[in-house]
Amino acid sequence: MLEKIKDVLVDAINVDRELVKPEANLSEDLDIDSLAAVELVLELETEFDIRIEDEELANLKTVQDIMDLIASKQ
Length: 74
Fold this sequence. Notes:
mainly alpha; globular; phosphoprotein; phosphopantetheine; lipid metabolism; acyl carrier activity
């Protein structure tokens, strides 16, 4: 799952693949702002065939949070 998330981050938001680790903070380490976060959610929803609610987006702080959320929806 981490590799698929890396692919989404690299392709959709141009994040450096080497920086994408479970403990990476989305805003501080990966420079994802609120607009990029919305784009990320749209890409994740498509890639994993899930729906991410706005409240859930607000709780996504790290790559691990993304992995946990996706795992809970599959």
